[in-house]
């Protein structure tokens, strides 16, 4: 059937679609009750089919777009983001391009035009590994508690637009009556966050494949244009950070090149939906329409886009001017983490033809906005001379829970467990409330402040109520913190501590241990759920937990581990558990956010000054020690991680809040030591997670973060061994901080990166105990004894074997015993084998 095609002149002369006055950059994708998590894990377990998983995902996507329209976003103006993912948005790009490591090449099927495409099973295999094939490495997504999969890109990695899932999801929503704005990680960020494939030559960078990746993105944009998409959002947060090993000059050149092709060489669609949806026999969009594209919004969340004074010069990073110099139609800037940009006389060249999305609503925290103050920020941005200014979120709302109204609020003074203090209802804004705030600010821009006067006054009153509330400031806590001296942050010399600890513990070379948690079986979870609901008596719950601890201790002794843990059956989450026992925190019932893949957490809300009413872990650790002659570790979560994995108050410096948590943990450690526990592990997996994205801001952060850990751990005797644990991160940037923690033993994630951290530690002169992980717990695969032995041999070749410990990458809570037991057997066997070589 013949279809008319717009001429190049028609396309160039037509005006582009306007961006709506209020948008959000993304929305939670797991479902209000974690429906996606449950569906994905059922698929993994073989209980459901790929078609059933696809159907559940479709229902969630359509429920999301309809909900966003209900909340005030437009159904037909692309204000609703299309930001769904089955697992991870970076993996989605790799799958769309067929860019998978060679070890997974057999998973690629046949795409529409003869190129490889992953099916759902293959997609998840790349994420989770299979057999001897390790999954993609995982690390944190900028300064969030979300973690993405790191693509492996080599000179020969296949890169071509092979999977049109983004297009199909747009069409799905359009057919349901909602025109969405597809959201995709931008090409420069995708490559800058990738790592070189193992077989890549020296000097190679994934950015060397920019032309291939941009060509594939161009095909994606053409396909979206043909489907009628008026806008596409390309996320380029790489422009707000200097924490990657790519000079900004190189990033800038990549941005200019990429968007010359995507924004200049392709032409914006004049009338979305007017292009033909049929294709020619070659599979291409016919005629001149093949060079059409949607309007492009480039989003730059997680930091300020413009240069700071300390980065002026050869590596000046005026990202706003950089993007304004391209032919993209809109730029989104984060005005929560970043300040309003300043412009030289005459403004920012090119900005007059752009729409500027002012990210004034915080997508990264849960506090209600002062709408009057946010409007003042938007008004300040209007002075930059942009062609149009609209309101948006600072980041995707992926990082906050769905809806405050999903929570249960107690009567005044009776809050407990997951029943929240009623005062919090007015203080909080989850994703749905933030969409409402965007809609309100958009009305203020279009109709004037008087149209939303009631909403502005309500927000002002809520902010004032929070400031004045009892518990926000506790004088005794402030006085104790003010009285701290340098001596409270320091221990004695490490050599003296090490000698005293070895005399007390008498550990063999390469001592074996785990990070803390053991698998949480359905029986454990059921008992805890019944107890939480009041349907299981305290005594019966304690009995159930003690029986599990005794079983875990017996298993560890049978396996031959040297230092034991109690397995943490009583803990729902390593941060939430402590929040439930510390004053100043609130815990939600349904405040789930995605951490990675199907892993979801409920970050506590830290709203007031922090105190410890009573010991938290002492009873469980003391009971465990009574069951064995071997050393037992007390297990705590460190102050930085408690902050990183909570929604933290924004009314005082983070360092002050960290010290309050540090003091509470210091008291807990003192009680563990008094109970005879000789090893205490204070986990800080998020140490690098909070590291500021700009290097100039990092020294101050490292000072208070390291200080809060030392405050928590420096009150013990020399013979008490302090451990810490770090994971989920590239550690090269914080090696000095790891050393500064002054822990006696530090365990780090290292299996997926094949001991990448160990030479860095050696080169940095690190000389205390180190446990580089030899077993990747983020995958269901069981590593062979030979694989673990090889990793351990790499470690002892790079660092003094006398300080090496043998442990998994992380806790075992999310694994099953069918995987855990053989993996730990192989870990112990590897330790014994390498230990024997050291004795020769």
Task: Write structural notes for this entry.
The chain has 840 residues and is of the alpha/beta class. A hairpin with a 6-residue loop joins strand 2 and strand 3 (147-149). The longest helix is centred in the C-terminal third of the chain and has 23 residues, at 817-839. The model is unreliable at 1-17, 272-288 and 308-314 (pLDDT under 50).
Set out the fold topology.
Elements: H1 8-13, H2 35-44, H3 50-70, E1 80-82, H4 89-97, H5 120-128, E2 138-140, E3 147-149, E4 152-153, H6 165-175, E5 180-185, H7 187-192, E6 195-196, H8 210-227, E7 231-235, H9 248-265, E8 267-268, E9 292-293, E10 295-300, H10 319-324, E11 330-334, E12 355-361, H11 371-381, E13 388-393, E14 408-409, E15 419-420, H12 423-427, H13 431-447, H14 453-468, H15 475-482, H16 494-505, H17 522-532, H18 538-559, H19 576-579, E16 583-586, E17 593-596, E18 599-601, E19 605-611, H20 618-625, E20 633-637, H21 639-644, E21 647-648, H22 654-674, E22 679-683, H23 698-713, E23 721-726, H24 735-740, E24 745-748, H25 757-763, E25 769-772, H26 785-798, H27 817-839
Helix pairs in contact: 2-3, 6-8, 8-9, 17-18, 22-23, 26-27
Quick structural overview:
This protein is α/β, with parallel strands linked by helices. Helix content is 38%, strand content 12%.
Largest sheet: 7 strands, parallel
Rg for CA atoms: 27 Å
Total of DSSP H or I helical runs spanning 4+ residues:
27
Arithmetic mean of pLDDT: 90
Taken from the alpha-carbon principal axes, the silhouette is globular
Query: Which class best fits the helix and strand makeup?
Result: alpha/beta
Q: Beta-strand level of the residues, as a percent range?
A: 5-15%
């Amino acid at each position: 059937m013949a279809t008319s095609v717009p001429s190049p002149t028609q396309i160039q002369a037509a005006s582009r679609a306007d961006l709506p006055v209020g948008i959000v950059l993304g929305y939670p994708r797991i479902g209000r009750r974690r429906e996606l998590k449950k569906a994905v894990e059922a698929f993994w377990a073989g209980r459901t089919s790929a078609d059933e998983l696809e159907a559940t995902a479709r229902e969630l996507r359509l429920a999301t777009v309809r909900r966003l329209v209900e909340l005030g976003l437009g159904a037909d103006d692309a204000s609703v983001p299309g930001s769904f993912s089955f697992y991870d948005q970076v993996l989605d790009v790799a799958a769309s391009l067929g860019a998978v490591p060679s070890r997974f090449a057999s998973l690629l099927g046949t795409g529409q035009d003869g190129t490889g495409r992953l099916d759902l099973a293959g997609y998840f295999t790349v994420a989770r590994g299979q057999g001897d094939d390790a999954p993609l490495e995982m690390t944190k997504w900028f300064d969030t508690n979300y973690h993405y999969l790191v693509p492996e890109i080599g000179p020969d990695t296949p890169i071509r637009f092979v999977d049109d899932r983004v297009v199909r999801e747009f069409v799905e929503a359009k057919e349901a009556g909602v025109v969405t704005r597809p959201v995709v990680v931008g090409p420069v960020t995708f490559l800058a966050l990738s790592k070189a494939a193992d077989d890549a030559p020296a000097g190679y960078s994934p950015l060397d494949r920019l032309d291939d990746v941009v060509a594939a993105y161009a095909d994606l944009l053409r396909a979206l244009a043909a489907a009628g998409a008026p806008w596409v959002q390309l996320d380029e947060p790489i422009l707000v950070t200097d924490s990657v090993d790519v000079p900004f000059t190189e990033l800038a050149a990549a941005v200019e090149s990429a968007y010359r092709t995507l924004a200049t060489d392709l032409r914006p669609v004049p009338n979305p939906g007017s292009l033909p949806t049929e294709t020619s026999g070659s599979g291409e969009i016919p005629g001149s329409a093949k060079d059409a594209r949607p309007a492009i919004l480039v989003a730059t969340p997680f930091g300020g886009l413009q240069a700071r004074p300390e980065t002026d010069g050869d590596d000046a990073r005026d990202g706003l001017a950089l993007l304004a110099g391209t032919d993209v139609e809109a730029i989104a800037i984060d005005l929560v983490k970043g300040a309003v940009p300043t412009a030289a006389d005459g403004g920012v060249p090119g900005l007059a033809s752009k729409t500027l999305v002012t990210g004034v609503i915080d997508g990264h925290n849960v506090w209600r906005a002062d709408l009057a103050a946010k409007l003042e920020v938007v008004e300040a941005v209007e002075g930059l001379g942009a062609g149009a200014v609209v309101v948006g979120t600072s980041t995707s709302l992926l990082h906050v829970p769905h809806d405050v109204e999903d929570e249960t609020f107690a009567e005044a003074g009776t809050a407990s467990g997951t029943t929240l203090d009623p005062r919090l209802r007015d203080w909080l804004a989850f994703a749905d409330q933030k969409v409402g705030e965007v809609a309100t600010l958009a009305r203020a821009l279009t109709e004037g402040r008087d149209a939303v006067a009631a909403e502005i006054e309500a927000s002002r009153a809520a902010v004032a109520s929070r400031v004045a509330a009892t518990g926000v400031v506790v004088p005794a806590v402030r006085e104790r913190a003010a009285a701290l001296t340098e001596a409270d942050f320091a221990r004695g010399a490490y050599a003296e501590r090490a000698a005293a600890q070895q005399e007390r513990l008498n550990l063999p070379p390469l001592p074996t241990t785990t990070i803390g948690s053991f698998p949480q079986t359905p029986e454990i979870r059921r008992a805890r759920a019944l107890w939480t609901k009041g349907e299981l008596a305290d005594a019966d719950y304690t009995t159930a937990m003690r029986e599990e601890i005794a079983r875990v201790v017996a298993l560890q002794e049978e396996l031959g581990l040297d230092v034991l843990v109690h397995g943490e059956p009583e803990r729902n989450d390593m941060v939430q558990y402590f929040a439930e026992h510390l004053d100043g925190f609130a815990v939600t019932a349904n405040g789930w956010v995605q951490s990675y893949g199907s892993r979801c957490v409920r970050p506590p809300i830290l709203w007031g000054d922090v105190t410890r009413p009573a010991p938290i872990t002492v009873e469980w650790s003391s009971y465990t020690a009574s069951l064995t002659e071997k050393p037992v570790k007390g297990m705590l979560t460190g102050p930085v991680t408690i902050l990183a994995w909570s929604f933290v108050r924004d009314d005082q410096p983070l360092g002050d809040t960290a010290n309050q948590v540090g003091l509470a943990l210091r008291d807990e450690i003192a009680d563990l030591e008094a109970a005879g526990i000789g090893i205490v592990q204070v986990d800080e997996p998020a140490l690098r997670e909070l590291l500021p994205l700009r290097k100039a801001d990092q020294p101050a952060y490292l000072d208070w973060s390291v200080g809060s850990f030392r405050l928590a751990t420096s009150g013990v005797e020399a013979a008490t061994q302090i451990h810490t644990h770090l994971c989920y991160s590239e550690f090269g940037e914080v090696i000095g901080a790891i050393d500064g923690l002054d822990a006696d033993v530090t365990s780090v994630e290292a299996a997926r990166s094949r001991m990448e951290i160990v030479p860095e530690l050696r080169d940095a002169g690190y000389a205390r105990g180190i446990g580089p992980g030899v077993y990747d717990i983020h995958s269901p695969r069981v590593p062979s004894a030979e694989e673990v032995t090889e990793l351990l041999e790499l470690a002892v070749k790079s660092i003094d074997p006398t300080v090496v410990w043998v442990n998994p990458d992380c806790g075992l809570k999310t694994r099953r015993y069918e995987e855990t037991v053989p993996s730990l057997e192989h870990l112990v066997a590897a330790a014994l084998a390498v230990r024997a070589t050291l004795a020769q």
